[in-house]
Write the structure tokens for this entry.
Amino acid sequence: MYRLYASQATASLVVHWMLIELGVPFEVEMLDFDDRAQKSETYLKLNPDGVVPTLIVDGAPVRETGAILMLLAERHPEAGFAPPAGSRDRAEWLEWMVWLANGPMAAYRLWFYDGDLPGLDRAALQAKLESYWTKADARLAGRAFLVGDRATTADLQLAMLARWSRNMPRPATAWPNLKAYVDRMRARPGLKDVHAREGVTDWIND
Ligand SMILES: N[C@@H](CCC(=O)N[C@@H](CS)C(=O)NCC(=O)O)C(=O)O
């Protein structure tokens, strides 16, 4: 049984979604950010950064969204959320997973938590985020998924990030290949399910 520490519609949503897609037993503890539950003494023992997600795997905490997704894909290879080790697609999947973590995930953290970097130039950060959407859009030209011919963890993460862009001057859906891709991902029952479970109603039905 996995135990996920999460908070509504945050980075933990993609791990929640992945657990649903895998069909494995799990429980979720929702932390209330308004109560600063993510900074409680108890939670900081599991996640010293005081952020979500944290996934308890075999009794031990695992942190970092990308790492958790890759670990889950590795532990449940039959579900096909990572290409087989040694394949060409595997190398591309690793590349995209690391790009997602270093690029858009890190930049969106600053977008939503600009106190992390006092003096941050938001216009420059917006341009950086848009450059990531341009890159993803180019990759998706003529492709259904970021890697290979089925959804991987990289697609789950990219779809979640697309929602995070919804209130930006140019959301991800302003790019044509991304718009078609996001619409396909939004049609997945697992994404609809996780939004319903977390009580998130915006964007999913746009
Ligand atoms: N690098 C971490 C970042 C996680 C993160 O920043 N999570 C946010 C929600 S999207 C959070 O927990 N924020 C609460 C806080 O910073 O107090 C990851 O990818 O898991």
